[in-house]
Amino acid sequence: MANGDQNILGQQLRYFRKKLNLKQTEMAKRLGVSMSLYSKLESGQIATTPRRLEKFASQLQTSVEFLTTGQGAEHVEKYTTALGSDELSRLSLDALDRLVTLSQDPKLVKLAEQVAPTLRVAPSRALAVVIRTILMGTQS
């Protein structure tokens, strides 16, 4: 990691720490590193490994790209696919099929991309909002 990348990572770690309203000690614990190491990372004094970056990104539910460059989606959308999860187990196969079909509709994808900046969310989240609106409208 180049020195500039270290500074960006430090800025991003600080951004998430402030957003989560955590002290450095709390953030270090959340990320599974010592307070000393975290402090050096946040201040841009040292670099970290790709493996540790992936761990940080996972813990903060963001992408490595966002942590290291400040670009890309801030939040990684995580979907549970485990059998028996509450949300999925309540859906019929027909309902799941409908969701998949709607999520692949090019018009809806384009609409989601257009409204994402207004909603201040990632396009995938905007697509979920668009689909939910459609589904709620068909229930009336």
Q: What is the count of β-strands?
A: 0
Classify the beta-strand content into a percent band.
under 5%
Report the CATH C-level class of the largest domain.
Mainly Alpha
Structure annotation, total helices: 9
Principal-axes geometry comes out as: elongated
Task: Kindly identify the CATH topology of the largest domain.
Answer: 434 Repressor (Amino-terminal Domain)
The CATH architecture of the largest domain is Orthogonal Bundle
Main sheet summary:
none
N-to-C order of helices and strands: HHHHHHHHH
The residue-averaged pLDDT reads 81
Distance between the termini: 54 Å
User: What is the domain total for the residues?
Assistant: 2
Report on the structure:
Helix 8 (106-119) crosses helix 9. With 140 residues, the protein is mostly helical. The chain is built from nine helices and no strands. The protein folds into two domains: 3-69, 434 Repressor (Amino-terminal Domain); 90-138, no CATH class. The longest helix is centred in the N-terminal third of the chain and has 17 residues, at 3-19.
